[in-house]
Structures are given as C-alpha cells and as structure tokens.
Amino acid sequence: MTQNGQDRPVVLEARGITKRFPGVVANDNVSLKLLQGEVLALLGENGAGKSTLMNILYGLYGQDEGEIFVNGAPLRVSSPHESIQRGIGMVHQHFQLVPVMTVTENVILGNEVMRRGLLDRRQAGQRIREISQQYGLPVDPEALIADLDVGAQQRVEIIKALYRNADILILDEPTAVLTPQEADDLVRVMRTLTAQGKSLIFITHKLREVLEVADRIMVLRGGRVVGETTPAEATEASLASLMVGRTVLLRVDKEVARPGAPVLEVRNLQVRDDRQLMAVNDVSFEVHAGEILGIAGVQGNGQTELVQAVNGLRSAVAGSIRIAGQDVTLASSRTVSELGVAHIPEDRQRDGIIASYPLTDNGVLEYYYREPFARGIVRNEQEVTKHAQDLVTRFDVRTPGVHVAASSLSGGNQQKFIVAREFSHPLKLLIAAQPTRGIDVGSIEFIHNQIVHKRDEGVAVLVVSAELDEILALSDRIAVMYHGRIVAIVNNGDLSRAQLGLLMAGVSLKEAMVLQQ
Amino acid sequence: MAVEGRTPEPAQPAGFRAFWARYSPLFVPILAVITALIVGAVIIGITGGDWLAAYIGLWQGAFGSPRALANTVIRSTPYIICGLAVALAFKSGLFNIGAEGQLYAGAMCAVVIGTTLKLPPILHIPMGIVAGAVGGAAWAAIAGILKARTGAHEVINTIMLNYIALRLTDWLIRSRQPLLLGDPLDTSSSRTPFIAESMRLPNIRLGETTALHAGILMAIILVFLVAWFLNRTTIGFELRTSGTNPNAAKYAGISVPKTIVLAMVLSGSLAGLAGAGEVMGVRYAVSTDFISGVGFDAIAVALLARSNPIGILFSGLLWGALLTGARLMQVRAGISIDVIRIIQALIIMFIAADQIVRWMYRIPQRKPGEEVLISKGWGG
C-alpha cells in the first residue's frame, strides 16, 4: 500500500472511530493513518479527544464505532495485551513504574524471562543494554527507579515498550514533565527510533516541538479532526488557531508596569528541603505592587521551597519574609493567606484541587470558614454553590455543572477554576507557580491575560515558571534562580533569551554578557 | 457540539436501563447483603439444613414480635453508635480499629460516675453520657496525638490500646487487694457494682415489653448529628479534606495534625457513648465479658454503609437483627448460630470485593474518585 505518494507502508490505521462518554462525544468519526518510520504529531487542546483516541488504539477503551487496522489486519479485541502483541507500545504521561524496583525489574514486569523456573535477570539486563545502545537511551539497568530523574524514567518507559517489540510507539505528552535539555534529548531519541523503522504518534500541545520533530501533523478539536498539515506548510500561529478555532496571541499584550510600594520583601532567606539540604540559599528580592517578577530557572533549583516558605508552608532556617510590611517569616499559611495572598500551586492535582470533591467544595477550599460561606461552624451551601457558579461563569470553565467532581474536568479547565478561585478575593500578592503547566494554548492565553490584569489592578505578582517563554511573556523583571541562589535580577528586555538560558544553566552574569558579544 | 461545556445533562437513553446505569452503584451494599444471604442459603442447603425454615426463623426472631423487635433494636444500638465512630474516622482518613477499647473506656467512666455520685436523674443521666464520651475521647486521643506528633500509625496504636483497655478493665474489676472497681458483693468478682437507679436510661414501652431503652433515641440523634457535622459544618469539611487529600488541606491553610487529633477524639467519644449507653440502658454494670467484639463489628457496619451515617442506621440494624434472629433460627431449623457469622463475613467480602457484585448485577464500573471505598463514601 502506498499513501501520499510515499512508498511507505501504513502500519496503523483507524477508520471512523467514535467514542461517547456520558455527556460528551470524545471522538467523533476520527480517522488516521500512521506510516512506517514517521512521526505523526497529534495536536489539540485539553479535552479535544487526543488521549481518548490513543487509549482506544492502545486497547484501554473500546470504541463505539469504527475499526482499527495494524499492518492491514483488523484489531478486534480491545485490550492492551492484544495491542502489545500486535506491536503497539505506549508511554503514558504519568509513568507506570514501580519506584522501589530496579530498571530491569520494571522493564521485564509482566514479561519475565525465566530460566529453570527462576528469573533470568542477567539475560534481561543484557537485552536492556542492547536496546539502550541501539536507540541511544542511556540508562543503568541496575539502578532503582526512585533514584532516577524524570528524563531517565521516561527512557525506561520507552525501553519497556521496545522490550516488548513495539514497532508503533504512542508518546502521550512526553515533554510535559521534561526540562528543555531533556526535551531536546527526547527529540534525538525520536529521530533515532524513526530512522530504525519505528513509527511514532506524538501527542503534545507544544507547538514548537511539533514543528521541530513531526513529519505530519493532525489537529483535533472537539473530538474531530479539524486539519492535517506538515511542518513545512504550518507555522506556530496557524497551528494554534487550528487548535482553538481562532487566532490566539502567543504574546501577552501589556502596558508598561507602574510599580508602587514593595509588597513582598524577602531578605537573606534560607530554606531546607525535605532531605534537609539547603534548597534556598541567601535569597533576597522584592516584589512591588503593580509589577510582575518572574523567577526563571530549571526546575528543582529551589523555586518550590522558596514559594512554600513565602506561603508559610515550609519554615525558613534564616532570613526574613515581609508581606505588606508585616513580618511573616514564621507565620502559618492561613495567616499569610488572610493578608491577601493568593497562591496557584505548581502541582494542581496534588495541592490545588481535591479531585473527588465537587467544584462547589473546591471553590471554597481556602475560604470555607469565612462569611458568607459559613456562619460560625455551619456551612452555607447556597452561598458555596453560588460562588462556584460565579467562578465557572467568569472564567469560562467548561463543565456540565458545579456539582460534578473536579476530576471530570480537563487539566486546563481545572487550572482555570483554580485561578478563578484564587482571584475571587481581594489580593495584595499573587504567587503563581507554573500557572500554565500542561494546559492548552487557549487556557494559557486566558490565564496570562488574567495575571496581567491583576497586575494592572495594583497586585504584586510573583510568577515562577520553568518555561522561559512564559517568564518572558509575563514578567516586568526577571530573577534567575540557580542552585538555590538568585544569580541575577534584571529588567525584562535587558538580556536576550539565550543569555537568560545561560544564566539558568549556571553561567555567571558577567560570562553570559561576554559570551553573547 | 462535543465538548461545548456548560450544557445540562445530556439526553440519556430512557427507561429502566438508564435508571439502572445511573443509580445502581448506590445499591451495591444492598445487593451484597442479598447475595450473601443467597450464598448462605446454599451453604445451609449443602449441609442438609432447611434454608427456608432457617430464614423464616431468622426473620421472626428479629422482627416477628414486639419483643423480638425490641431485642433487635437494643442489640443494634451499640453497633450503630460505634459504626458512626469508625465512619467518622474513615471520613477523616483514619482507620480507627480502637473503637473496642474506646467503648470500654467510656463504659468504665460511666460506671464510675454511676456508682459514686448521687444525683437526680435529670443531672445524673447527662453526666453519665458526658463521662462516656470523655472516656472514649481520652483513650482515642492517645492514638491521635501519637499520629499527629510522631507519625505513628493509628492502626497499630489503636490495636495496642484495645489490649490495654481490655486488660485494664479486667484488672480494675477483678482486683480485690486493693479493691478497685469490682463489686464487693459479687462473689465471682466478674463485674462492677450496679449504677444508681438515677443514671439508668428510661424505658420505652413497646407492646408488652418494657426492655427497649432510650439508647436508640440517642443513636438516631447521633446519626443525624454526625451526618450534619460531616457535611454541613466547616469542621467536618476540614476533617474530610484532610482525610481525602492532606496536601491540598495543608495548602488550604488547614492544620492537618490538629484535624487528626480532633478526628480521633470525636471518633473515640462516639465509641465511648456506645459503651456508656450499654451501661446505662442494658447492663447497669461492666462485666468481664461485657460486649466484646462490638468495636470490631462496627468496622463492618461502617464499611457496609460506606461510612454514610444514614446508611449506618440501617447496616447497624441489620447487624443487630442478624444476631438477634439467630437464636430462633437455631431453634426452628436446628442450625448453628455460627451460620450468621458466616453470612456476616460474606457480606463484608462482597462489600470489599464489590467487583463481584457489580459484575453479577451489571453495575457500571467505578469512576475515578469513587474508588476508595473505605475513606470516601457516597458523599465524597
């Protein structure tokens, strides 16, 4: 079979896939073809139906209508076991690894090599090394998963699929959890895989990556295929508008900041992490009313601990924190919040929302005890419901109602709801940690505009993000954090993107200036 | 049209199938009970018994006469109250296996108040109830504080506190030199003195029997009080939130260690009330063979009701009915009372492994967020 004038066989084909869930048509007559040795990028907003489609291909869900063919032969039984047998492998966004077991044990899990009734670890380890070398996936087969960083864990997931002889690999938002460097490594791995005849489906909403790595691009919106294109024909802007169905601004339009008095003053702060290592070391900065200070840095350089300390969630070892003139170095998180501090936590699933609670309860997570949501200790359900409805309306959160569990919303809508909640009270200081991580372009634009709007109302804003583009788009001033220290605070525009990148990588400000000239 | 959000509930296929798909998950506990009774009948049949006669006997023994009904209600009361204790802890993310020990602590405190003070009933009865609650709360607080301060797991500590409470009670009752809480007039030294008349719960007239005491009223009030507390108060919200997602609770400004202690104290006070109720309404003393096992069966009662307080009213009654009806069943069908224990065990197995029940009755699979049966019930 030849397609698109290329002499490549079709390895995977889906025809007219339709999948309905109560209340939504997740996939509506979706068809796709994957050619051997290509990267097919599947692009779409959260809730567009990408993950549903992939879960159908992988056999986790059965489709309501439509057919799937692997190498021309129909795939009948819907089970991951069947899909694996037919050479389909999947790397999930949330890794399916056992932290206390070694790489080898994780890879062979469910597919153990036996010799005389015993596990043959050596042979398995040998095969893992071979795969690792063949595809450029460096990993130590004897290492414990818990000791590996995120990038290495992802390589283990890919090896797991290859170990089961997968020829078709589905990568579900693989770069969402990676640092820029790790993402570059992954792109290299993807090229090696396709060069050796593997076929990849790459799910993402990062437009730049799509243009960089894909051979063909398919865009889903509202469960339907709305466009097919190639990187040569597309631009970031054209893809973004296909995804959301309108033209989006990738830059945030904002006026020049008019900073007022300092709201947050951090002086010589030292904070230890969970392992008692110094995570924040001698950090000092100020955030003024009406300005956005962006903290740039590769994740794990102390930003998490810094934000926790400011919010009263982690105690400082030394130094001081003042908010609106009041010393809050040792204050509880409730005291901090009652000063008019809102916090968008970096891990929304874990810290920002309670998945099993309805939106009504999630809407008052921090304010449940205050008027009008409660009088004394008695909750006022009417006010709580009204509040949730208000948040949903004002921030255009897509949900069938306010009494559904938060887990039934897409990531972008959950985040919009959290932002809506944090913005619904009088604010002096807004702390937004990774405010748009893993959410779709449309929601990113919306949240960015809301943050700028708060700034213009005179709120002091501290944005922490691992995405340099986000920092550049939002910040008035930029602080770069590296190994627990703030290595530079500059006005946005003083340094180029590349210079900031060097600072984030640990190069000193002086050197960064020289290197760029 | 697909993901265009805020539209109301979509048009569902009409009729019984749609109704079943939507509401059948709520019936899982009931279906588990029915299935257990069917399997129980099969077991009786295989061992050569007459299952129909046995179940008729069981029914009549539990509900067949005013006296039977009164006995069932009396028997159910401590299960209901103790079930509430376990459920409140579940909802707060804690597994209180120590209801048994807390029940004894509450009962002993009630006995002390009932045997030492001389008060009019209007004061004496509330004093006894408060003493029971305080005793249970204090005993549970030990495990709560250990967990909050040191992270020591409440399951281990409440089990150990059970042993301590049981042996301590035994010693307090049996010791003659020195004479502690034993009754000097009781030659077998196996119980405390009886409490004063003024602290005994008034009886409710039901047909000819007067055995039904006011404890059941206390249980019913507590059911609604706990339901209201958990779902309609800010403190209940704090407990549920800490139990469901301690991280998010911490980020929301809730002090998780405080809620752990509070949850254990409240849970323990309920268990203590169950003990006090038994002392003040049924036995008027604590004996060495008091009502052992109630605290453990209460876990089953709470599980069967999925920690829903209103549900516990029914699962507690079921528990009491099964145990009360068992005697007549034994007489009618000549079957050992132990069959009831088997049926109770089967009910819990079908609840714990609810996949079996769901498969048998074509009930849709659990959705995310619904999966933790123990600590997250219907109300979430």
UniProtKB/TrEMBL annotation, chain A:
Protein name (Swiss-Prot/TrEMBL): Heme ABC transporter ATP-binding protein
Membrane topology: Peripheral membrane protein
Predominant place of localization: membrane
Stored PANTHER family: CARBOHYDRATE TRANSPORT ATP-BINDING PROTEIN MG119-RELATED, GUANOSINE IMPORT ATP-BINDING PROTEIN NUPO
Record organism: Candidatus Chloroploca asiatica
Database matches in Pfam families: ABC_tran (PF00005)
InterPro entries: AAA+_ATPase (IPR003593), ABC_carbohydrate_import_ATPase (IPR050107), ABC_transporter-like_ATP-bd (IPR003439), ABC_transporter-like_CS (IPR017871), P-loop_NTPase (IPR027417)
Domain ABC transporter: 12-247, 264-508
GO cellular component terms listed in the entry, alphabetical order: plasma membrane
Domain of life: Bacteria
Cellular compartment(s): Cell membrane
GO molecular function (one): ATP hydrolysis activity
Keywords: ATP-binding, Cell membrane, Membrane, Nucleotide-binding, Repeat, Translocase, Transport
Transmembrane segment boundaries: none
CDD domains: ABC_Carb_Monos_I, ABC_Carb_Monos_II
Recorded coiled-coil stretches: none
SUPFAM superfamilies referenced in this protein's UniProt entry, alphabetically: P-loop containing nucleoside triphosphate hydrolases (SSF52540)
UniProtKB/TrEMBL annotation, chain B:
CDD domains reported for this sequence: TM_PBP1_transp_TpRbsC_like
Gene Ontology CC: plasma membrane
A GO term, aspect molecular function: transmembrane transporter activity
Compartments, record wording: Cell membrane
Entry-linked Pfam families: BPD_transp_2
Domain of life per record: Bacteria
Keywords: Cell membrane, Membrane, Transmembrane, Transmembrane helix
InterPro entries xref list: ABC_transp_permease
The protein's name in its UniProt record: ABC transporter permease
Lineage, opening ranks: Bacteria, Bacillati, Chloroflexota, Chloroflexia, Chloroflexales
